[in-house]
UniProtKB/TrEMBL annotation, chain A:
Residues 71-243 form the GDPGP1-like N-terminal domain. This is GDP-L-galactose phosphorylase. Keywords: Cytoplasm, Guanine-nucleotide releasing factor, Hydrolase, Nucleotide-binding, Nucleotidyltransferase, Transferase. Pfam families: GDPGP1_C, GDPGP1_N. Residues 250-397 form the GDPGP1-like C-terminal domain. GO terms for cellular component: cytoplasm. It comes from Vigna unguiculata.
From TrEMBL, chain B:
InterPro entries: PAC, PAS, PAS-assoc_C, PAS-like_dom_sf. GO terms for cellular component: nucleus. It comes from Vigna unguiculata (Cowpea). This is Non-specific serine/threonine protein kinase. Residues 22-90, 257-279 form the PAS domain. The keyword Kinase applies. GO terms for biological process: response to blue light. One of its GO terms (molecular function) is protein serine/threonine kinase activity.
Amino acid sequence: MMLKIKRVPTVVSNYQKDEAGDSSRPVGGCGRNCLKACCIPDAKLPLYAFKKVNGKDLAMHECGEPPVAFLDSLLLGEWEERMQRGLFRYDVTACETKVIPGEYGFVAQLNEGRHLKKRPTEFRVDKVLQPFDGNKFNFTKVGQEEVIFQFEASDDGQIQFFPNAPVDVDNSPSFVAINVSPIEYGHVLLIPRIFECLPQRIDRESFLLALHMAVEADNPYFRLGYNSLGAFATINHLHFQAYYLALPFPIEKAPTKKIANLNGGVKISELLKYPVRGLVFEGGDTLEDLSNVVSDACICLQNNNIPFNVLISDCGKQVFLLPQCYAEKQALGEVDAELLDTQVNPAVWEISGHMVLKRKKDYDEASEGNAWRLLAEVSLSEERFQEVNDLIFEAIGCSELDDNVQCDKEVDAVSTSAHPTVVVAGSKECVVLQ
Amino acid sequence: MLMDLCAQIQRSFDQLYTCHARHSLDELPDSFTITDPHIPGHPIVFASPGFLKLTGYARCEVLGQTAAVFQGPGTSRRSVMEIREAVREERTAQVVLLNYRKDGTPFWMLFRVSPVFSGDGGAVVHFVAVQVPLHKKDGSGVRDFGFGCCRKEVCTDSLSELGRVCSVEQVLERDVIELESEEPCEASEEEMRSAVTAMDNIFSVLTHFSEATGRLVCRKRCSIPDVGLLSTSLIISLGRIKQSFVLTNPHLPDMPIVYASDAFLELTGYGRNEVLGRNCRFLGGTDTDTSTLYLIKESIKAEQPCTVRILNYRKDESSFWNFLHISPVRDASGKVAYFVGVQIEESNKNDDRQCLSPEKRQLSVVGVVKVAVRSLSMSAGSSKS
């Protein structure tokens, strides 16, 4: 049986046509600045090259000012410019929003415009990995004006910024583009190696790029998110989302319990007292250590066909991984009609505690209890969650060879994360397992 | 710039409490700091001798710094978030926090922070933070691992002694230190009382000396906040913006300036108190084009952004061409709460050191202001709602 749900797809680009029956849609014929071969040779887009930090440098303070502040100057400046040019479908700052009273502070937004003028479309939700389909909408079809800059690693170890850089297609550039249906100010999409047309699927290199973006933003309120297929991603072209909301998210406030320490300094905890069960990854001697562990966990979920969402928070220091089963339940008719009526699609932002509501009634009646009830439906059962955890731990244990990863699940005992001033010892000896 | 900050820090303290208050505070045995949310970065403006002893820093190394300097890899992000929330909501908070000394060694402390309110106007003028160092109690946490031999040393925080132990044991020692730093520590009743007492003593000094300056401070908000008063968290957010801009409030009579950035004061030559509460028209003069003023007025009426080139005058009456961008700023209700005006002096417009065009630089200010105003007006708990 093939599981499908019907939902209104989110319009992330002005070039996104109604997908239903668009097989006859004309292709090519360009008069505008598109990203195709006809226009790209003349394209000039800002290019921000971040500095790759190694190991302990992470904690060191930067010397000297970067040429441009990534978030406050570059991203917000370009975003506001697109706003004043009228590229967005609505002014998100005119959408009423509030913190719902309660212990967690769920954030509710009333957004009546986000889903207008779109017909519900069928989405297959039982396959987390699906091949890229060039006939469907993908980000190579957006116009240049929706791309705000190129984002890559610097080749000389310093942050570099070029206001007008050519687009070198052969060099696999990654783009940051606006989302024309923003759910908060600064809502953008990071599209790793856009011209490689990767399907929505986590790989180590792309995930590290997303973590780097969180580091460059250098602001705990600028977070990145990822939805797998089957967990409310609507576009099967690899992308992360990000936006700026200067409030803590409920998921960031939830207590955690440490369940494992890995070599490389990555600590894994389990979320407690939160409606959605999930794992929290922190630490890491290098950004790459953290990135690899999380990527491997995601890859494991993908390979096991388990839909999931990822939230990168706290400037890339903390990553939440949430396997989910809402779409599957929805397809099987197991979700309460009352919840379905709200048409809230529990993707990464909703799971993190930021609820975008389409009906005034739901907004007015929004309560912590309602938010909790919806999110509880998203969560795996305790039993299933433990099964999934076992898969993940097996995967991150096996992905590195034997003595590199040492996992002390449930023991909660030996830590190998080292503070720089503490006696330096080879990380292997630190694990005492007599 | 550095001198500037030093002067600002001194003024921040002396204006409210006089320099004599320093001596009295120096005599208190406790570890505490005072911070000023009105200076960009919300820096420390006073650090007690107890604090310096606890952290191993010299006073000059600490003044002007933010609390983040004392945090490290083992510091709980959630606890930091709790403090940030308390500052935003202008209330007292108490958390157990892992901090780091200058030499990098971690220590647990009970951290208690309280706002200091101005007696008139009800604005938050400073925050006081008290740090009570915590000691691990016997029987807590790590005994199970059989490393009893080194527990005492760890308990007394004398990490330096660990450097002397033989190399075979070093590995074990290290794990215990790490556990010691990761394992959350709890504060005893006595430690909590001591934080409250320290806070009481500090406030009595501050209140006493503030009487002398005529700018009485208090521990509770003792008057209703002035209409149009910006919340502390908004001021902290706006303080990060280095460019020249003002915020005006269209809901107050004659649409006065309610916030002016340091760069604006530098550009125009006015003091902050000379511009707050006034309509922006004082920047105009005899040769200012009235059709430009009309254009601005129409844009404001239509709640639309606009960019103009307008002749403005400084306090010393010298004139300059102001490349001015004005944009409406909405709060969480979705309604226009302020207008932001971003000024670039035309002669500095094509500054070679700047990577971004002047237009983009202005729009980035608008973006930062929009996020700050919108986000900080979302919670009903904030002081202005």
